[in-house]
């Protein structure tokens, strides 16, 4: 074969090889493009997966937080329920007390009227120590019972106070000025009482003395043997003399 023929064959072979390479290059590029697209899609999918994972983690954390809050709220609600139940028991107890107070009022008001009546009767039958003052106290109690602005408890307290004052008359020594009726005449005197044991009266000029006879409900004249002792007793009660033994008329117990 001549050199020209060889060169021509070589040229033809090179062209054929180049054509074959081009023919194989296009599918390869397509494959590479598809692979790149797949890689990009995979990257995007991974991003989506990562995003979904992150969201799921956030939702899980939020869920746990909600669960914790729910548990806390349940505990707190149970606590509040206990408080409400205790308050309801307190309310029920107060209501029972209120009902009891109303019932007590219904019973105690008649009792107070009976106590006032008994006190008045006792004073009228008792030794007349500060008689008018004691009777006035009873009238004030009766007036108090008609005042709507005074509570039942305050009314009861004052009735008990009156009884306490009456009790004190039996334990104290006292003197005060007043007058007694003797022979139809009013005689000014100084009274002296040794509790309820003895009540005597001394005229202001200290010329005569009298003793109260509670059985006869009248004043009786004392003989002169008691006059000095009565004078001393009055002065002791007035704080003018120190305490000392004195002779007083005392009715013996039957």
Automatic annotation (TrEMBL):
Keywords of the record, alphabetical order, are:
Coiled coil, Signal
Name used for this protein in its record:
DUF3450 domain-containing protein
Q: Which residues form the signal peptide?
A: 1-25
Source organism per entry reads Agaribacter marinus
Top-level lineage group: Bacteria
Q: Which residues form a coiled coil?
A: 28-104
